[in-house]
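pasting for ref
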Amino acid sequence: GVAAQEIPEHQADLHRADLHGAELRWADLHDADLHNADLSGAILREADLHRADLHGADLNDADLTDTDLRGANLSGAKGLTAAQLEGACRDPATRLPKHLVQRLTRGDPE
């Protein structure tokens, strides 16, 4: 699989990249273009995805524990759950898929 040291520094163009199951712990991907990327099963613990574009990315079973998602665009992300977001760092500028905006606003369980 792909390891964090193999990924270019911030502002990387990784749209449509196949990063399924990649070990990206501590990766610096702030401002990266990851739209429509396959990040299913990826380990993104403590990664910097600040202001990253993850629109349409597959995040099914991705580990987002302590991941910096402040200002990230997660709209249209596939497989993303409220449980995954609980351990991530986000802010009001983080754009979430519609189904999660509604669920998190109401406080519904997963």
